[in-house]
């Protein structure tokens, strides 16, 4: 009996996508729940899996535009695991279908295996059915040094190479649906909003001392590290309450005032920037925020983010500091009216109580829609964030 492999539904607003790649070759014997292909849409990237064991027959080539519900392959359940695989594809399958035990590795895991030299079969998987995840590979790589490049063999001098052809000098790749949408949204935000950015700097001493003092106890109790993002999330919620004008959006000629605190967190992935939402940040404690951020970031990097994860945020936090950014002007995440940019922490001399002292300082950047938020509100909001970080006790008493 042959089972149709169809493009799965992605949500009401998604009707088509691009079948970006096949993870297995035509004629492969596949297992139930094994990843078969990668689908790119204008909002998310996801994987299609096998619904049964059997032999796969591919009907649609990689790179083809497909519609939701379209049949792209079939699985013959009557085929056995001993069925032959086309000889031409055996070498390709050896690379593409790396496994951890009986569980097929995801593209992210295969890429990390190639980069680190770690065999996924030697890593204990924490995913579904013992599947090795990207997080498992990253954790395993911490204790293992990266590939050591082999010493180059002595060779005789050779003549200088000729100028490379145009084809060798460039590689042209079609922009993914997700990247196209990101580009359109960023350009649209700049064209439609009267965007302005205000800056401030914050002394991170108090937060760093708190993390150092309570980190071990926090990890033992909650199983997650106490990071900077939970402090800034709480500070943002505090500032939104103090300056509610920032927690609003423009809908045509109407101002929509939000009375909830779902905060969007920018996450960098291999497919591009995604901004999943952490719900109810005003009701979560520090541990709850840290767990939610970790789980959401993991889903984003593994390509498991859904449409519901990306919608409904009222304010965005983006942290370019993890990449070493000193200062930037973040672009609004429409239809939101403001976004906070965090940057690298660097020790700098500052004047404190008439003396020059060295402190771990971070630049903050608040970009906002000047059509809705006035300069006074924006500056006040940023000052409230600064005060909450420099004196975290304010978050407890609401000052």
From TrEMBL:
User: InterPro entries under this entry?
Assistant: 2-oxoacid_dehydrogenase (IPR050537), 2-oxoacid_DH_actylTfrase (IPR001078), Biotin_lipoyl (IPR000089), CAT-like_dom_sf (IPR023213), E3-bd_dom_sf (IPR036625), PSBD (IPR004167), Single_hybrid_motif (IPR011053), SucB (IPR006255)
Q: Looking at the keywords, is Acyltransferase present?
A: yes
Q: Which UniProt keywords apply?
A: Acyltransferase, Lipoyl, Transferase, Tricarboxylic acid cycle
The protein's required cofactor(s) are namely: (R)-lipoate
Please give one Gene Ontology molecular function term for this protein.
Answer: dihydrolipoyllysine-residue succinyltransferase activity
Q: Show where the Lipoyl-binding domain sits.
A: 2-76
Q: What class of enzyme is it?
A: transferase
A Gene Ontology BP annotation from the UniProt entry? L-lysine catabolic process to acetyl-CoA via saccharopine
Q: What is its EC number?
A: 2.3.1.61
Functional pathway: Amino-acid degradation; L-lysine degradation via saccharopine pathway; glutaryl-CoA from L-lysine: step 6/6
Query: Can the keyword Nucleotide-binding be found in this entry's annotation?
Result: no
SUPFAM superfamilies listed in its UniProt record? CoA-dependent acyltransferases (SSF52777), Peripheral subunit-binding domain of 2-oxo acid dehydrogenase complex (SSF47005), Single hybrid motif (SSF51230)
Q: Reaction catalysed?
A: N(6)-[(R)-dihydrolipoyl]-L-lysyl-[protein] + succinyl-CoA = N(6)-[(R)-S(8)-succinyldihydrolipoyl]-L-lysyl-[protein] + CoA
Task: Output a single Gene Ontology CC term carried by this record.
Answer: oxoglutarate dehydrogenase complex
Specify the superkingdom. Answer: Bacteria
Q: How is the cofactor bound?
A: Binds 1 lipoyl cofactor covalently.
Task performed by this protein:
E2 component of the 2-oxoglutarate dehydrogenase (OGDH) complex which catalyzes the second step in the conversion of 2-oxoglutarate to succinyl-CoA and CO(2).
Q: Which PANTHER family match?
A: DIHYDROLIPOYLLYSINE-RESIDUE SUCCINYLTRANSFERASE COMPONENT OF 2-OXOGLUTARATE DEHYDROGENASE COMPLEX, MITOCHONDRIAL (PTHR43416:SF5), DIHYDROLIPOYLLYSINE-RESIDUE SUCCINYLTRANSFERASE COMPONENT OF 2-OXOGLUTARATE DEHYDROGENASE COMPLEX, MITOCHONDRIAL-RELATED (PTHR43416)
Q: Which NCBIfam families match?
A: PRK05704.1 (NF004309), sucB (TIGR01347)
Q: Which family does it belong to?
A: Belongs to the 2-oxoacid dehydrogenase family.
Name of the protein described by the UniProt record? Dihydrolipoyllysine-residue succinyltransferase component of 2-oxoglutarate dehydrogenase complex
Q: Which organism is it from?
A: Oleiharenicola lentus
């Amino acid at each position: 009996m042959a089972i149709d492999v169809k493009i799965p539904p992605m949500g009401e607003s998604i009707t088509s996508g691009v079948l970006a790649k096949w993870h297995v070759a035509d004629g492969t014997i596949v297992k139930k729940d094994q990843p078969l292909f990668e689908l790119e849409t204008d909002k998310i990237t996801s994987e299609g899996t096998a619904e049964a064991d059997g032999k796969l027959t591919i009907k649609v080539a990689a790179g083809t535009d497909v519609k939701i519900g379209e049949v792209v392959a079939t699985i013959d359940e009557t085929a056995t695991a001993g069925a032959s695989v086309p000889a031409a594809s055996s070498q390709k399958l050896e690379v593409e279908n790396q496994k951890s035990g009986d569980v097929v590795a995801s593209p992210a895991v295969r890429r990390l295996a190639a980069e680190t030299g770690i065999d996924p079969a030697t890593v204990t998987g924490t995913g579904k059915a013992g599947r090795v995840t990207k997080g498992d590979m990253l954790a395993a790589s911490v204790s293992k040094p990266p590939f050591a490049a082999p010493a180059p063999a002595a060779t005789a001098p050779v003549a200088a190479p000729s100028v490379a052809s145009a084809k060798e000098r460039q590689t042209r790749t079609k922009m993914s649906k997700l990247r196209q949408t990101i580009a359109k949204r960023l350009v649209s935000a700049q064209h439609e909003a009267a965007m302005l950015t205000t800056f401030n700097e914050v002394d991170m001493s108090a937060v760093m001392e708190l993390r150092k003092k309570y980190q071990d106890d926090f990890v033992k109790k909650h199983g997650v590290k106490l990071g900077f993002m939970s402090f800034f999330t709480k500070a943002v919620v505090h500032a939104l309450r103090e300056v509610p004008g920032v927690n609003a959006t423009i809908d045509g000629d109407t101002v929509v005032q939000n009375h909830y605190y779902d905060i969007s967190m920018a996450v960098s992935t291999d497919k591009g920037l995604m901004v999943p939402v952490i719900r109810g940040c005003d009701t979560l404690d520090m541990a709850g925020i840290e767990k939610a951020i970790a789980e959401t970031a993991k889903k984003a990097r593994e390509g498991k983010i859904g449409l519901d994860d990306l919608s409904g945020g009222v304010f965005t936090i983006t942290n370019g500091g993890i990449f070493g950014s000193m200062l930037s002007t973040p672009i609004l995440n429409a239809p939101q009216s403001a976004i906070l940019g965090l940057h690298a922490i660097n020790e700098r001399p500052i004047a404190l109580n008439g003396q020059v002292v060295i402190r771990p300082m971070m630049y903050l950047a608040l970009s906002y829609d000047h059509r809705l938020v006035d300069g006074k509100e924006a500056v006040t909001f940023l000052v409230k964030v600064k005060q909450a970080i420099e004196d975290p006790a304010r978050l407890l008493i609401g000052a």
